[in-house]
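Q: Give me a protein?
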Amino acid sequence: MKYTLSFITIFTYILITLPAYSFPRNDLKPGGIAIITVAPSNLLKPSVTYQKKSVAVIKGNQNWLAVVGIPLNAKIGQQSMTITLASKKRTTKTFSIKDYPYRTQRLTIKNKNKVNPNKTSSKRIEREFFFKKKLRNTFTSNTPHFNFILPTVGRDSGRFGMRRIFNKQKRNPHSGMDIAAPLGRSVKATEAGRVLFTGNLFFTGNVVYIDHGNGLLSLYAHLSKIIVKKGQKVNRGQIIGKVGKTGRVTGTHLHWSVYLNGNAVDPRLFLPIKNRDKKKQ
């Protein structure tokens, strides 16, 4: 059986069912988030899949809520998700996403190999592509918290979703938020979790991935120094590294990405209102 939910219906559900702690903002666009009621809270926790991937399900005051990450390349229009109750009964719910006019950013990269990689670099990029995909699809049973903070203080220098052009060549949309800050400034974990991976990758340089549970991950890239280790538990606000300019960069900054069910989503949707819509300085 199928149900079609309007934006107003979804928003009403959210007002009724959200618990006291913070949730990300519901924003039905490519790269956005859909928060949808999937079952009453008096039932056992259901499982939810979207595009064949498991989705975070959080218990609200009155209902179980699916927190769905929408991919940047999602087709405009109706999307569907499958809900499986503890009784094994399955239902399908749909939601509709609207187009969003992400801006275009043109950048000049001095290191030509970071734009048109040589043969050796191309092989490395291919290996890392599958490795990063595996990391992004990590799904653990831990219940995530969404009370995010900014990982560092600085100027908003690159918004999520921007259509990027490097040296006059089109590249994939920007999958995170860039924060320009001085070399060596502290980078903090935006929420509690466990370090999933640390290391050096071709495009993103020195990185830290944190698993917050139920398919919610955060990435901190271009670091000059990594302070934590793989498998380490970290608290919200704990220093995990230092701002740098490793990887493909035009200057010193932190690249911060957030993933839900394997999809990069707008990090601003996890921040308090005063930080979500902060204009570029």
